[in-house]
Design brief:
- The protein is of the alpha+beta class.
- It has a single domain, classed as Jelly Rolls, CATH 2.60.120.200.
- 18% of the residues lie in helices and 31% in strands.
- It has eight helices and 21 strands.
- The strands form four sheets. Strands 1, 5, 6, 10, 15, 16, 17, 18 and 20 form a nine-stranded antiparallel beta sheet that branches. The protein has a seven-stranded antiparallel beta sheet with strand order 2-8-19-11-12-13-14. Strands 3-4-7 form a three-stranded mixed beta sheet, with no helix packed on it.
- Helix 1 packs across helix 8.
- It starts with a helix and ends with a helix.
- The relative contact order is 0.23.
- Keywords: Signal.
């Protein structure tokens, strides 16, 4: 009786112990002249997705104006659009990730006015744990070539899937298995149904705002254009309540993808590569483009890349009140222990151990 009572009591407590709060306070902002202060530039050829680019370090990127703050105070990250290359050369570009990592129980909001697009272009705004694929990947925005719309997705170790019970507005479900071992690491992908979620249409609409909620009970992504942006996201808001945002475009509830099992604290990333494993794959490239990805575009007229840039007004990160949200590089933290990331079984075992000790 005694044991059964405490097991039931512990189980009753668990939902409130692991349920994500809807209210978040701002803990980090990247904006204006200081936007680039806390980022790491990859500074290497694209040996990750095999694109035909050299990712520049911060000094070279700033010197070559591939990363800068424009007169409007917005951060710009772009592909070189002036250099005529010779065969065998790659085009310069940028890939940068936040020095800090952000824990489960955080939200990031990005106001983006322009995303890179065009044949051969593969651009993304996303996040991952430093030990990828352990720790997972969240793609808030990704698109290639002349796709009509952008998409969202997760990449994880085997065992995480997109739930049939997901509450989301998009019905364009490309794939449901998030495993990196399935379908050539396609991930569990949801297409953003908005015709202004990528390319020229996105730019002409003045861009939009992406919201990613990285919560213990699931991962959700919202997209708003300028006419649908809720009042709770307008202005320099220091707190947000995700309950005011309506139904997300994409949702991966924890019932089929346990967030505390498949995800660790995330670094946020902007990158632009060319061709590579995705945009350059024949089955993808020829859906919207003609010619040869490298020969006709990377080596072609540099003005092909006049539209291959991000312009970002701000990126803000919010966390649950009273919880650790920001893990700084000096802390050396790369894993989590018993706490808000603990599995229910582990929490239950610890509660029972406490009961028996009493």
């Amino acid at each position: 009786m005694f044991t059964a009572f405490w097991v039931a009591y512990a189980s009753f407590l668990l939902p409130s112990a692991v349920r994500a709060a809807a209210q978040y306070n701002m803990v980090k902002e990247y904006a204006g002249e200081s936007f680039f202060d806390d980022w790491t530039f990859y500074n290497n050829a694209d040996n990750l997705t095999h694109g035909n680019v050299n990712f520049l370090g911060n000094k070279d990127a700033f010197h070559d104006n591939l990363a800068f703050t424009n007169d409007a105070g917005n951060a710009v990250m772009k592909v070189d659009n002036t250099t005529q290359l010779k065969f065998g050369q790659n085009r310069n570009s940028v890939r940068l990730s936040t020095k800090d990592q952000f824990t489960v129980g955080s939200v990031w909001v990005a106001d983006i006015l322009h995303v890179p697009y065009g044949c051969s272009v593969w651009s993304a705004f996303w996040s991952s744990a430093p030990t990828w694929p352990v720790g997972g990947e969240i793609d808030t925005f990704e698109a290639v070539n002349q796709d009509p719309m952008g998409h969202m997705g997760l990449h994880t170790n085997p065992g995480c899937t997109h739930s049939s019970n997901a509450v989301q507005s998009s019905t364009l479900i490309n794939s449901t298995d998030c495993s990196i071992d399935a379908n050539s690491n396609q991930g569990c992908i949801i297409t953003n149904p908005s015709p202004a979620s990528y390319g020229e249409a996105f730019a002409n609409a003045g861009g939009g705002v992406y919201v990613t909620e990285f919560a213990i009970d699931g991962i959700s992504i919202w997209f708003f254009n300028r006419t649908t942006l809720p009042s709770s996201l307008q202005g320099n808001v220091s707190t947000i309540d995700t309950a005011t945002l309506g139904i997300p475009v994409a949702n991966w509830p924890a019932d089929d993808c346990a967030v505390n099992e498949f995800f660790q604290p995330q670094e946020i990333v902007f990158d632009i590569t060319l061709c590579g494993d995705y945009a350059g794959a024949a089955s993808v490239f020829y859906q919207t483009c003609t010619g040869v990805c490298y020969n006709d575009y990377v080596l072609g007229d540099p003005s092909f890349y006049n539209t291959a840039y991000f312009e970002v007004s701000y990126l803000r990160v919010y966390g649950e009140p009273g919880e650790l949200t920001v893990i700084q590089p000096s802390s050396g933290v790369r894993s989590v222990g018993l706490g808000r990331f603990a599995t229910p079984a582990l929490v239950l075992g610890s509660l029972l151990a406490l009961v028996w000790a009493l």
